From TrEMBL:
<protein>
    <submittedName>
        <fullName>Predicted ATPase of the ABC class</fullName>
    </submittedName>
</protein>
<feature type="region of interest" description="Disordered">
    <location>
        <begin position="1"/>
        <end position="54"/>
    </location>
</feature>
<feature type="domain" description="ATPase of the ABC class C-terminal">
    <location>
        <begin position="125"/>
        <end position="316"/>
    </location>
</feature>
<dbReference type="InterPro" id="IPR046834">
    <property type="entry name" value="ABC_ATPase_C"/>
</dbReference>
<dbReference type="Pfam" id="PF09818">
    <property type="entry name" value="ABC_ATPase"/>
</dbReference>
<feature type="compositionally biased region" description="Low complexity">
    <location>
        <begin position="42"/>
        <end position="53"/>
    </location>
</feature>
<dbReference type="Pfam" id="PF21117">
    <property type="entry name" value="MRB1590_C"/>
</dbReference>
<dbReference type="InterPro" id="IPR049069">
    <property type="entry name" value="MRB1590-like_C"/>
</dbReference>
<feature type="domain" description="MRB1590-like C-terminal">
    <location>
        <begin position="347"/>
        <end position="442"/>
    </location>
</feature>
<dbReference type="InterPro" id="IPR019195">
    <property type="entry name" value="ABC_ATPase_put"/>
</dbReference>
<feature type="compositionally biased region" description="Gly residues">
    <location>
        <begin position="25"/>
        <end position="41"/>
    </location>
</feature>
Length: 449
């Protein structure tokens, strides 16, 4: 069974160690950096010092035609290829052979000795991944949503990194909602139902998705991951024909496409969107990545051209009232009621997504970033801890989460289950703990003040 050297010889050619000694490698046909077979490339010293005119570039490309991949490194130059007639200089910073490599606009190059992701990776607040079905966009999002967890180095997963405060958002028909202000997204409900203090035992797709976003913001999320396949269609966008049929003042839902920019500008919440059926997000996205046979391609410029040609669309023209999300974060406080989190019976973790909490069943299927039942054990113990933390009903939810996090950081997970030594606990993020607090079906479990 061949080792790493055999793999690179098969992929790039070459017959020996280093950058090709003989064979078909970078030193094909003998020692040195020549390519063999009559190929010179004019680059026998340091290819970073090369460059020249467009005629030189054309001649080099003709010489490289049909050669092995390593020959393309002769294009790399700091001097550039100058077109005097057009007044431009072409620079090639890196030759890339991997078809699954990310587009240049989204790529970060790491030194071998450094495994740290620079903040510039997240400099673009809104990204859209678009293509037709079955080409890998949802698969890529699934990798991103699990990138919130650190991985042991060795198999490549350590380089799939997402902000630890990123939250996967989806619609959850039928979930319970308690005292959530969803007014930035939904208003004008029938019979004047209040959406600034929204409570229901059976939320619709759109109201559940709006609640999930607001609850995640409250818990400290800094990025939202949304897949069109699991989102409420009427919550994400509305086409022009529907706008003409239903007047804006009678439409209860403000589409997410009109709010996603305000989310970032006002409170710094970024979004990663997987879309396959609507191009309305092209106008508001900073980057558009197109998936084709599981390969990523930068389609930002083309998407912006398409959006400009269809600038008459009503979806992206207007956002919500300025400051609505700042007000939501600063003024709306929700308080867990301690007695509601007393299990009043036995608790049992039935599976990764189901908790039997006394006589109440808590469904966590909407928390897609849970990866192990041991995390659910931790969440169950955290719920019981709330009964003492919020015994006077005067502690905001955000502070309840802070206290749980601080206790675990200082004393370890055993602080949540004193006297139990079964070793079946794994740390859960505050976002998933908050998700369980919000999904527990008990009357008056959270109040708004």
């Amino acid at each position: 069974m061949g080792g790493r050297g055999d793999y690179y010889k098969q992929k790039y050619g070459g017959g020996g160690r280093g950058r090709g000694r003989g064979g078909r490698g970078r030193g094909g046909g003998g020692g040195g950096r020549g390519r063999g077979n009559g190929y010179d490339g004019g680059n026998s010293n340091n290819n970073n010092n090369n460059g020249g005119s467009m005629a030189d570039l054309r001649r080099l490309l003709q010489q490289m035609d049909g050669r092995q991949y390593p020959s393309y490194h002769d294009l790399e130059t700091t001097k550039g290829w100058v077109n005097t007639e057009a007044g431009i200089t072409l620079y090639v910073g890196r030759a890339q052979s991997d078809p699954f490599a990310p587009p240049t606009r989204c790529r970060v190059v790491l030194q071998n000795s450094v495994a740290q992701i620079p903040p510039t990776l997240y400099s673009n607040p809104i990204r859209a991944m678009a293509t037709r079905g079955f080409h890998g966009k949802s698969t890529l999002l699934q990798a991103l949503q699990l990138g919130v967890y650190l991985k042991l180095p060795g198999d490549g997963r350590e380089f799939c990194v997402t902000s630890p405060h990123a939250m996967k958002i989806r619609a959850e028909d039928g979930r319970a909602v308690s005292s959530v202000d969803i007014s930035p997204f939904i208003n004008n409900l029938p019979f004047g139902k209040d959406t600034t203090n929204f409570t229901t035992p059976d939320a619709s797709g759109s109201t559940s998705q709006a609640s999930n976003i607001v609850e995640s913001i409250e818990a400290g999320a800094t990025a939202l991951l949304i897949d069109e396949d699991t989102a409420a269609a009427n919550f994400m966008c509305r086409d022009d024909k529907m706008v003409q049929l239903v007047a804006a003042e009678k439409e209860p839902i403000t589409p997410f496409v009109r709010l996603v920019r305000s989310l970032y500008q006002e409170i710094g919440i970024s979004s990663v969107l997987v879309i396959g059926g609507s191009g309305d997000f092209f106008a508001v996205a900073d980057n558009v990545v197109m998936m084709d046979c599981y390969k990523t391609h930068d389609a930002t410029d083309r998407a912006k051209q398409i959006a400009a040609q269809a600038s008459g669309s009503s979806n992206g023209q207007h956002s919500c009232q300025p400051g609505v999300f700042q007000k939501l974060r600063s003024s709306c406080k929700r308080y867990p009621v301690g007695d509601a989190y007393n299990p009043a019976g036995k608790t049992k973790v039935m599976s990764k997504i189901v908790i039997q909490y006394g006589e109440t069943t808590c469904d966590l299927a909407g928390l897609e970033q849970l990866v192990t039942k041991a995390q659910t054990n931790t969440i169950t113990n955290s719920l019981q801890k709330i009964a003492s933390i919020a015994s006077n009903d005067g502690v905001p939810l955000s502070q309840v989460l802070d206290q749980i996090e601080q206790a675990v950081a200082q004393q370890g997970l055993d602080v949540l289950a004193p006297g139990q030594f079964h070793g079946g606990l794994a740390r859960a993020r505050r976002l998933e703990i908050a998700g369980a607090i919000n999904r527990l079906r008990r009357t008056g479990n959270i109040v708004q003040r």
